[in-house]
Write a structure and sequence with these properties.
Blueprint (H helix, E strand, L loop, with lengths): L8 H14 L8 E5 L5 H11 L4 E5 L3 H7 L14 H8 L4 E4 L2 H7 L2 E4 L19 H13 L4 E5 L7 H12 L5 E5 L9 H6 L4 E4 L4 H15 L7 E4 L1 H32 L3 H9 L20 H14 L3 H28 L8 E5 L14 H11 L3 E5 L5 H11 L4 H7 E3 L3 H5 L4 E4 L4 H4 L3 H7 L5 E4 L6 H6 L3 E4 L6
Parallel strand pairs: 1-2, 1-4, 2-3, 4-5, 5-6, 7-8, 9-10, 9-12, 10-11, 12-13, 13-14
The chain binds nicotinamide-adenine-dinucleotide.
């Protein structure tokens, strides 16, 4: 792949004309490398490989265990659980989809390199607890520069603070053996739990790049990849900064809707209104729309909180304090909702949970994923454990050790103590047996069809049921004898 490096205005115009003439013949991507085989890199690249059999896609990661799991013969052992992912992997893996730890070879061979590594909130130094930690992105840029022997298009797939592409460009241009690198921003909008349908049929694909002939050529190369299966009118192209900021903005708006309806849920509980009725009434207004109006114990996941905090940090850097305060409130409301749920459990168990068994149904941050990052369950559990509750967890997809790692990570108490107070079981009925209360933390479909009568029989009385996801029918549950507490509804 050769990229032109004309700089003069007329030369640029001449190039643009030539570019337009030959247009699609310019850069045809044949080899893709994706750095980061996580919840985004794995599913995204699997779908690209499935849809574009003529492109070789190599997904690399420094985590050997993760790569081994991606290569596991038994598809139920893939490191990411997503409905339909196993079939996509089965179709493409070994054909044109490969998972490897040989990062340098994959970079060298590729004409397009995606950066899909984690960008968590910083846990140290300046910006601690707010800014995105770009350590892994910078390492990727340096490794791309070092391993490259030909020009490359580098695609930011990770969610990044606006203007990160400048830093990536700077590193590549200063350490990259004089090669040409075009930087594109292509944020991912998939939602965990529905990643495969989201990737197969996205609302839109966003690609940001430089408004130069080389930039437009790179954009076109990526448009062509997605164009294999995504209708062209759904592929939006913008400048790099707009693309980077659009991802942060999308997550901020989505999270804001959840915090807004959760705020109303508290008002419903105080007034006797029903949050589901309110959500329906406002959601039918086409200006508001019905999605993301489900009241709950609070949002979780690796993205919403991290991306809003990151945006708040950026705003503060530009001294936009009112803007920062506005968005920070979305996080504060979410924290409040989790604490409120925990306090409600305590209050209804006669103001003490010490030594009492509380069953947690669900640990993942939402249904149909095994991801637990920032899951509301972790924080509700932590609050109750500080009140010396005994918690018994059942989640259909989260392994036992993950529950303990999540709690240990908070550093609230020793890991021995966490193991003493918490147990994890493989059967929901066992979790509920002898419990003073059952709390639903994740909206797994299977919880709706449990034998709730049997669960009531297994529990100590009065049997308190806290539905943190509003998945059960309140009249039915109170008919079965539960003291039923939903979000945003009067207790039954
Ligand atoms: N999870 C989501 O739903 C989602 C959705 C949209 C965007 N994003 C964004 O995508 C990015 C990745 O998220 P994720 O959920 O896939 O994270 P993840 O933690 O699941 O995966 C990241 C992977 O990158 C690997 N990695 C880190 N540094 C590396 C290096 N130098 N070389 C090779 N591998 C390296 C890690 O080992 C890890 O396996 C983040 O910026 C996130 O904000 C996530």
């Amino acid at each position: 792949m050769k990229m032109a490096s004309h700089t003069g205005k007329s030369l640029s115009r001449a190039f643009h004309v030539a570019f337009k003439k030959s247009n699609h013949n310019h850069v045809k991507v044949k080899n893709i490398c994706c750095i980061g085989a996580g919840y985004v890199g794995g599913p995204t690249m699997s779908v690209i490989a499935q849809k574009c059999p003529e492109i070789k896609v190599v997904v690399v990661d420094i985590n050997q265990e993760r790569i081994d799991a991606w290569n596991h013969e038994d598809l139920s052992q893939l490191p990411v659980y997503e409905p339909g992912l196993d079939k996509v992997v089965a179709q493409a893996r070994g054909r044109n989809l490969f998972f490897s730890t040989d990062v340098n070879s994959a970079i060298e061979e590729a004409d397009m390199v995606f950066i899909s590594v984690n960008t968590p909130t910083k846990t140290y130094g300046e910006g601690k607890g707010m800014a995105a930690d770009l350590k892994w992105v910078e390492l990727c840029a340096r490794q791309i520069a070092e391993a490259s022997k030909s020009d490359k298009i580098v695609v930011e797939k990770s969610t990044l603070p606006v203007r990160t592409a400048q830093a990536v460009k700077d590193i590549l241009h200063n350490t990259g053996n004089g090669l040409n690198f075009q930087i594109l921003s292509n944020p991912e909008f998939l939602a965990e739990g529905t990643a495969i349908p989201d990737l197969e049929n996205p609302d839109r694909v966003l690609i940001g790049g430089d408004d130069t002939p080389e930039g437009r050529e790179a954009i076109q190369a990526l448009v062509d990849v997605y164009g294999t299966w995504v209708p062209r009118e759904k592929i939006l192209t913008t400048n790099v900064w707009s693309s980077e900021l659009s991802k942060l903005t999308a997550n901020a708006f989505l999270a804001q809707r959840v915090s807004s309806i959760n705020a109303i849920s508290e008002l419903c509980e105080a007034t006797g209104a029903d949050v589901e009725e309110v959500a329906k009434a406002i959601g039918t207004d086409s200006r508001i729309g019905s999605k993301f109006l489900k009241a709950s114990v609070g949002f979780g996941g690796s993205c919403f909180q991290k991306d809003i905090l990151n945006m708040v940090y950026i705003c503060r850097n530009y001294q936009l304090n009112e803007v920062a305060d506005y968005w920070e409130q979305v996080i504060k409301m979410n924290d409040h909702q989790k604490v409120r749920f925990a306090k409600k459990i305590i209050k209804n168990l006669y103001n003490t949970v010490s030594g009492k068994k509380i069953a947690f149904l669900g640990w993942a941050f939402k249904k149909d994923t095994n991801d637990t990052r920032e899951s509301a369950a972790i924080y509700v559990a932590d609050y109750l454990l500080s009140e010396r509750a005994n918690i018994c967890v059942y989640d259909p997809k989260v392994p036992k050790e993950k529950v303990f790692t999540d709690l240990d990570y908070l550093n609230t108490r020793s890991s021995e103590e966490n193991r003493k107070l918490v147990s994890v079981v493989n059967d929901p009925y066992e979790a509920c047996k002898g419990a003073h209360a059952v709390a639903i933390l994740t909206e797994w479909d299977e919880f709706k069809i449990l034998n709730w009568e049997q669960i009531n029989d297994l529990m100590l009385k009065p049997a308190n049921l806290f539905d943190g996801r509003n998945i059960l029918n309140s009249s039915e549950m109170s008919r079965l004898g539960f003291r039923f507490h939903a979000i945003g509804k009067a207790d039954k």
